[in-house]
Amino acid sequence: MSTTKRLASIDMLRGLVIVLMALDHTRDFFGPALFNPEDLAKTTPLWFATRWITHLCASTFVLLAGTSAYLRGTKCGIPALSRYLVTRGLLLLVLEATWISFSWQLGYNVTILQVLWALGMGMIFLAGLAWLPLPAIAVIAALLIVPHNLLDAFQSNHPLWLAWHQQGFWPVAGNYGVFLAYPLMPWLGLIAAGYALGPVFQWEAARRQRFLLAAGAVLLLVFVVLRSGNFYGDPDPWSPQGRGFVWDFISFIRVHKYPPSLLYLCVTVGIALPVLAWFERLRPVPMLMLFGGTPMFFYVVHIALIHFLSVPYFMLRYGAMPQGGPGGFTVPDGYQPSLGVVYAAWVAAIAIMYCLTTLWLRRKTLRPATAQTHPG
To answer: How many domains does the chain have?
Structure first.
């Protein structure tokens, strides 16, 4: 019984961050703005909150991927786990470089390496790391996460450095290039930390929940202490804004994601772990369980879906699509970004994805029976 609840809580948390991830991607396509929602000089509290809450997604995905790998290994053994992680990781890399990159552009001028790149490389990394003792894995995780902000001052356009620590664009040839959105160093550390966390999910429920709550509290305390004096852990210092508590708070929690700073990971994982403990005490939520149990299907479908849906919206309302990207972004005449439109489109996208995922699971479940009935 406890095992079922543990797995339900993991799926529910994964499902929650999937829903939040879809909000971020809906904002990209239905609410593109000429300002960065985290730019304190141009944003509003609601635009900032809409962007900030989605910071929970990537860190939770990567952490839970490590934990799920550990739990899988306890059932199948390390050799089988390593083979699975390598093949799964390679699949994610291929998907990222092909269909997912296409889905963002509805074309192919740039290979965009984002969360599937980080997850795929993380799984391949874990395939070798899993052979080590858990304390050694935990130490490696800490060495990849804690000191990586010491490297913030080093800037280079070399593709290996862009892939390891510094987000950037690598022009390959002509009009084609690779955009490395998720530098690997801290993400590899986080997936290793998730793996090292795995044994906690074999504990008795009450002990496990106490640990998750305490670990979350410690991470949030570390965040507050380090952030309060801009001591260490984020390249973007906070400062009083002179516009009231709300803006001071926004400045305080505005953390760096590309690459994820130590403080970014502290605050996001510090929230995720107590939520995971709380979900263990709740009755499973069907929609979250559905999405959390089928993360690959959701991710592969939803970006293209939201992008396709945005085309008739912009063409019918404004007669043109937003064009370009950072440094050359333009919007149609008369267009004004609207959070109301973003949230309405998000709800519609989630409803469509719920139907598509349900149909896909039903077809997947019926396929073996059909094959047995019609062997030819």
So the answer is: 1
